[in-house]
Structures are given as C-alpha cells and as structure tokens.
Amino acid sequence: MAKHTQNEQIKHAVFVYSEDQLGYKFSETHPFNQKRLVLTIDLLKEMNALSDHNIVPARIATDEELLLAHDQRYIDIVKKASRGEISPESGESYGIGTEDTPIFENMHEASARLVGGTLTAVDYVMEGKAQHALNLGGGLHHGFRGKASGFCIYNDSSVAINYLKKKYGSRVLYIDTDAHHGDGVQWCFYEDPDVCTVSIHETGRYLFPGTGNINERGSGQGYGTSFNFPIDAFTEDESFLEIYRTSMKEIIEFFKPDVILTQNGADAHYLDPLTHLYGTMNIYREIPKIAHELAHEYCEGRWIAVGGGGYDIWRVVPRAWSFLWMEMNNIPLPEGKLPEAWLSKWQPESPVRLIDTWHDPDNMYEAIPRKEEITDKNQQMLNKALYMIRNA
Start and end of every Histone deacetylase domain (predicted)? Predict the structure, then answer.
C-alpha cells in the first residue's frame, strides 16, 4: 500500500490519542481493555495508514465541561474514589465499586481524558481543521448524569453533544452501532428536539442494558428524535446492514443534522465474548463507508467518530477500527493478509490464534438454523420503525 503524506491525512481526518488514555483500566482481568488502542495503532502504522504526524493529543475535560452531562455531586464522588477516599460499598449507589465498574486509582483523570479526547475531535472538525476526527478511546455510552454503568464512568458522547450545541449551535445526529443499546446518550437527549439518537443493537431481551425498544421514541419536544433498532440474537451481516443502510438514509433526510457523531463499538462480531450477534468484518467495512457518504451529502463532511465496546481485542477490534480510520482518509480498504510484522509482534502475547487476513475465514461458524426466521423478524421490526419515521 502506498504511503500517504501528512498533508493528505490531515486534510481528511485527525486521530486523537494519548498514551494516558491507557490509564482507563479497571484491572488485568476486566473485559474492558484499552490494549486494543495499542494494537489498532500499531496495525495502522504497519499499513502506512497512520503516522505520528496525524495524531493529536487528547486533553483532559474540565469540570465545567463534564457538567454538560454530569452532576457535580457525582463528579466529586468519582474524584474521591480516585484518591481511595470512599469504599466500594459507598460508591455502589453511584455505579462505581461494582463488578462492572470497579474503582481504580486516578479514575477521574483517566475518565476525563477520554472525554477530553472526544472534545478535541469535536473542535478539530467544527473549527475546520479536519473534515473528520476519530477518538477510539471514547464511546462510553452507558454513563448517566449521576451514575456509572456498564464500564462507563463519564459519558464522552453526551458531553460532546451538549458541547456541540453550546459552543457551535449544532444540530447533532448520534449513530450507535455497538451491540449494546446506547442508553446513556439516548436518555440524556430524550426530550431534546435538536439531537437525534439512533441505536442498532442486540435486543435487550438477552443483553445488557435491557433497553432500546422500538417504542422508545423520545418525549415532549424530543418526541420522534429517538430511534431504536433492536435486532435478534444471532443476526448476521446481511440483515444488520439492511437495517443500517435503509434506516440511516431515511433518518438523516428526516432530521437534517449539521454534524454526525458515530459510536463504533466492535462487539457485534461473532467472536465477541459478551454478545450474541453473528457479524463479520463485512459490517465493519460497510458501517463507516455509509456514515462517510452521509456526512458529505448532508453535513459538509462533518463527521466525528468514537470507539465503544469490543472485547475480542486481538482478533476483531484492531481490524474493525483500522477499517474505520482508513475509510475516514479515503484509503482503499485492504484485502489479503495482515502485515507479517504485526502478526509476529503480537502473536506471542495473544491468548488466541490471531486471524491473519483482513476478511474473516470462510465457515467461521456453523450455519444458523433459524436464519430465515431471524431475518424476517428483523425486517418486520425495520418496517415498523420506517413507518414511524415516515409518519413522525
């Protein structure tokens, strides 16, 4: 693959990252593992798709900025927990000190840096320094105003959306393709007519957080600006992408945003240990491609992207997130094998055999016996959702 120049890269997108983002670490055994950032960056560098000139540092969000989506009391509790001044038991009512979101040293600073990374991405795009910006350390979509949830302490997307509204007067379309429902962001803007939240996720009948039903449409002035597409367990690529392509074209035409913010969890893949969807690398090639096209067609290219879930950090996340960055920069998506240098470097450390190709191997899983039933069920859900959009 030909090497891209610094000017070409910056013209298209910036990559927000600081090593300090690796400090968001609950424990050695916790499924949320920011090692995936290191693996992704190293893979992109081996592909000559990313250089240090393209990377801009993530700053720490201020308390004033965190207050755009969180209560002062909650921020104070997180700070005390960071210093070891509260017990796990006393933190549980705030969602910290739990099995999902345990307390760790300097958790406030680490969490605020993930938020600051997304705000950095926002400023680069909205100030015209780049058409697109990516903060893979962000995407913590389960955080609530006064409570942590689902590995998420501060909700960087919710802070960033209010920041976009306050500083730039923007009308924001938030698109979440994480396998888990983007509940924290949805509820933050459930009554806001200037923010449209879209979530395509595994149905809450089987998976945390249990929300994201099709009838969660928003309320008050925000009614009709919340869209959920709960798909059945074992959903495969074709059905997932049909829902994404069809719904997004109708929603963006209906809402007409100024900017798009996408959350790019990589946990809808078959190999992800925490979910039950049967996606392959095909969806991670197509999702950013469609978002990219929509951003240029409706938002003058303004597209901010964050990371999210993704718990097979060796075989899935680095490839999926590499596709996202390459799409942002108009770099042709690779075929064939991954760089041998990357495979040789990381295979000794990986607890599983790395997949050595950009595409998933054929016959990665056995045929789903209920495929037709699952597809039909998803199609009925999509038809009902489209009816709601068209009659909003």
Answer: 30-325
